[in-house]
Amino acid sequence: MSTAALWARRYGALIRAAWLVDLQYRADIALWLLWGIIEPAVALGIWWSIASAAGGDVDGFTQLDFARYFFAVTLINQLTQAWDAWSIDHWVAEGEMNYRLARPLNPVHEAIADNLAYKARTGTIVLLVWLLAAWFWPIVRLPVHPRRWLLAAVAIVLGAAIRFFNGFAIGLLAFWTTRATSLIELQMALGVFLSGQIAPLDLLPHPVAVIAHYLWFPYVIAFPVSLLTGVGDSASSVAHGFIGQIVWLVVWWGAYRLVWRRGLVRYGAVGG
Amino acid sequence: MVPSVADAAEPRLELNTWAVLRALIRLSATLELQYPANFFASMFGTLFWLTMAVLTVALFYSHTTHLGGWSFWETVALLGVFNALVGVVEGVFRPGIGSLAEQIRHGSFDLVLTRPVDAQLYLTFRELDLWRIADFVLGLSLAGYAMHKLGRPLDAAHALAFFITFASAIAVLYSVWLALMCLAFWLVAIENLPTVFDALFEAARYPASAYPKALRLVFVYLLPVAWTTTIPASALVGRLSMLGVVESVGVGCAALLVSRLVWRAALRRYTSAGG
What we know:
Number of domains of chain A: 1
Helix content of chain A: over 70%
Number of strands of chain B: 0
Helix content of chain B: over 70%
Oligomer: heterodimer
Number of strands of chain A: 2
C-alpha cells in the first residue's frame, strides 16, 4: 500500500471514530455551540447600539459592517477553535496518555481527526444558522465572490492549524505542570481582544492593535474574517496575511515538535 | 400523654434544618482551608478577569459616551454586581445544585434522598467553594469604587434597595439553576447543563437597555437572566423606583415558588438511575 493510501485509511478510521463519539455527545456539543453563538451576538448587539447612537457608523464601520463582521467571526471562531489543551491535560492527569503512546501512531493525528469531525459538525450548523439569518435579514448576506471565498477557505485552514498547534504545544506543558490549562485560558482571554473577537482590530486603541499585529492572534480570526467579508482585501494585505499565517504556523508547529520531544523524555523518566 | 408513632417518625425537622446547614458550611470550610493556595489562585484569576472585563467596557466607551443610557462608571458598577453574582454562582450553585446531573447518573442522588433532611436544601449547600468569596468581595468593591467615581455616596435608602434587589436577583438565579438542573431527570445523557446558564449569563454583563430591540427580546424577555444584574445595579446607581424594588421581590418569590414546584414534579417521576 502506498504511503498516501495508508494515511488516508488511518485518517478515515480516526475521523469515523471521532464522529461516532461526538454523536453520543451531540446534546453537549449543541450546548457548547450556544456559547459560541451568544458571545459574538452580545458583541454585535453592543456595537450595533453604539453605531446607532453615533448616527450610523463607528470610525467608518456601519451597522451592516458590524453584522457581517460578527457573523463571520462566529463561523471562523468555530472552525478554528481548539480544545486540545484540555484533552491533553485530561490524558496526562488520568493516565490515558499511556495507551496512546503505546499505539504506533502519534496522538497528534487522533487530535487532528477529532478536530476535523467536530468542526465539520459544528461548522455546518453555524453555516446553516447564518443562511437562515440571511434569508430573513438581507444585510448579513455576503456578495457572491467565489475567488475571495476560496482564499478565505485557505486562510481558515491555516488559521485553524496555527490555533491547533498553539493549543497542542501549550497543552503538552501538562507533562511539567498541572496548570497548563490556566495558561491557555489566560491566552484565550487575551485572544478575545487581539484576534478581533470583541471588536474589529481597527477599533482597538492604536498601541494594542500594533501589538496584536506582531502576534499570531489576528492571523487566526481577523485575517480570514477580512477575506470573507471583503473588507481590506487589497493584493498587498492578502499577501501580508498569508505570509504572516505561514510564519506563525511554522513557529507553533516547531514549538509543538520541541515540547513533544522534551516532554516524552521527561514523561518517561517520571513514569519509568 | 403517649406520643403517637407519627410524632416519633418526625424527629424535629425544623431544628435539624439549621443544624444541618451549619454543619455543611463548617465541613466545606474545613475542607477548603486545607488548600490556602487555592485562595490566591482564585484571587489572581478574579483580578485578571475583572481587568479584562473593565477593559472591554472601556473599549466600548472609547467610541461612545452612553450605552443604553448608562454612563461608563454606571456600567462598571453593573460589572461589579455581575462579578459578585458570579461569586455566588461559582461558590454555591455550581458545586451544589450543579452536581445534580452527575449525581443522578452515578446513582449517588439516591443516597441524598434517603437522608432525613429536605433533599433540595441538602443538595444546595452540599458543597461550597468558599474561596470564590473573592469574586463576591472584589465585585462589590469594584461597584463601590464605581459609585465613588460617580460621586454618589451610598445613602441608607439606596443601600437597602440594593440589598433587597440583590437578594431577589440571587433568588431568580438560583431558581434558574434549579429548574435547569431538573432537566437532568429527563435528559440523563446531558453533562453540560450549566453551560446553558454560562452562555446566557454572558449577556448580563451589560445593561439590558444596551441591546438593540431584537436581541433585547431574546436576552431580556425570553431569557430573563439579563435582569439579574441590571435591576440591582439600577438600585445602586439610583435608577430604580420604589415600585421596581417591590416588583423585584415579587419576581424573586415567584421564581423560587415555580422552581420548587418543578423540583417536586421532577422528584415525583424519579425512579432512580437504574429504574
